[in-house]
Predict the 3D structure of the following.
Amino acid sequence: MKQLLCLLLVFAVVCSLTACGQKDRGEPDDRYDPEGENVPSHLLGGGEAMVGGWTAADDPTVTPELQAVFDKALDGLVGVDYTPLVYLGRQVVAGTNHAFLCQARVVYPDAVPSYKLVYVYEALDGSCQILSIADFDFGALCEYGG
């Protein structure tokens, strides 16, 4: 539970830092839906989607629907296996940006895993792509001791 709270805190900080001066990758077009009427149900969770802002996930579980979005975006990516561990949240744009905390493992024997923040864009037409993959350092989250 303590780790989950720490992860959510880090997600909030990351969102606030990356939102400053960063343009959304989903460009508005004639399909843009500010009322969220065309937002897939798996994105809405228990609360309303806030257009343009990041919404933390009500439940960090990577559902089969979210796994399908993740898999579609990373289809064809070779060299590193990414396993989504936690669904952090979403940002409704002309489509939806998703944030996942993932374990990454380079594809070679005895590779040491690392952790990454993987941002995925899901377009209104159902296509998906990787927005960015950022390093995630657990050691930088909290300081222990004196």
About this structure: The mean pLDDT is 76.
